[in-house]
Amino acid sequence: MIECVPNFSEGRDPEIIRQIVEEIKGVKGAELLNVDPGDATNRTVVTFVGEPEAVTEAAFRGIRKAAQLIDMSKHHGEHPRIGATDVCPLIPIAGVTMEECAQYARTLAERVGKELEIPVYCYEEAAFSADRKNLAVCRQGEYEGIPKKLSDPHWKPDFGPSVYNERIARTGITVIGARNFLVAINFNLNTTSVRRANAIAFDVREKGRKKREGGSLTGKVVLDEQGNEVWLPGTLKGCKAIGWYIKEYGIAQVSMNVTDISQTPVHVAFDEVSAKAAARGIRVTGAELIGLVPKKVLLDAGKYYLAKQRRSLGIPEEEIIKIAVKSMGLDDLKSFNPREKVIEYLIEDAVGRGKKLIDMTCKGFVLETASESPAPGGGSVSAYAGALGASLGTMVANLSAHKPGWDDRWEYFSGWAEQGQELIGELLHLVDEDTAAFNRIMEAFGLPKETDAEKSARSAAIQEATVYAARVPLRTMQTACKAFDLAEAMVLQGNPNSVSDAGVGALCIRTAVQGAWLNVKINAAGIKDKTLCADILAEAARIADLADRREKEILEKVNRIIAGN
Question: What is the set of active-site residues?
């Protein structure tokens, strides 16, 4: 799977945007995730994902339609731009290397240059030369500078025509490449001064600013011994930034691209911009995320701000993201819905959110279990019981983390709560995985068996599905058993007022283990490889015995504490 995030130089005409998006949506296998138009920038960022062939075909069609509908000679906007499709990056998501992604980008660029007769530069990991890796360099001079750019042999396009003509006057140049996730974020300032916004941008961006005599901002530029301009680097690695005024909002912004979130997490950028702004008497009132972000960006930010508050980090991810949104003011200018901005959520929705058991209400899950359908069954219910047990232990950890008088112990309980959230996530996954394993067996039995080859293939598929159906509840046993450590720690160290909750958690955990044990036994009975069958049963039996002992020990401690002993 790869992601494509083309930026089209039209953000004001909904009909043009619609037609471009329809071209992209018309490609089977390309899942549209987000369309983000901007009036002031006169630019629309579109995000879609899928298998490489489908994504590159959709990108080509979008570029083609943009070339037909957008006349760059009439384009004006706040954002730098050089073409109707200004930039079109491909981003590896899963099962694709960056090198492969770069090759897909070059193939797309070659097709755009040849079939659409649009000049194309390849950038970032798809660049053919080091001086074209940087998008800003490729876009230097912007649309108005194209005639001069194309007259320079050094800037001959990688693909497409190199002589300026009427068609290029309309379409401009397109920059196509392959890169890692880039987070585009604008920091809102309580000023209308573009000069001050630029000063803040130069303070923080990696490139920095030109060094001037006397340390002033307006003095003569300092040159080195070779006569080159000397630059003073900014404070944030992997960040590009400029200042601009957004008429739509009536404020100036620092517009930033964070090209490497491992070097500079977004929350670090937010705090640094805030600090540099404050040093100039300006306040950052919030931020505006453009396009989509990986979930990690918001989770890391939320945990960072929770830690500063000395609060537990082991709360549900939805709550962590809410903290991130409020801490960075991502809803300052307009409402912010994580399900529309986080790439993992949108991919999840695209492949069918709401079809999972764990997306049901409690009542819905119970009634579905009670229906005539054989699934969900005991395996799914066991995994859910384990998730409830881990949840109770996590609840006690979170309550203990902010118990009055226990402030110096918040990190201890936060650590346990985070472990609990990991176990909850895995067990909830197993709720649906158990049903999926059952369905795999049913599908295998439904395979044709007319010829000898079909019979052999059917038999092999049934065995593979049967082994998997035994391993899934074994994973439930293994995962649930780990939650005993959490329950016991909360019984002994947690808020004493919640000791019974931790005890109920231990009961749920044992139920999960023993229930899954029954599923291991019944599914393993169909495994023809007797050695493999024996190994699976032996491991499951060991965990079942351990669960019995752990539950008994924990409940004895719970009862002693309740009795006051």
Answer: 79, 434
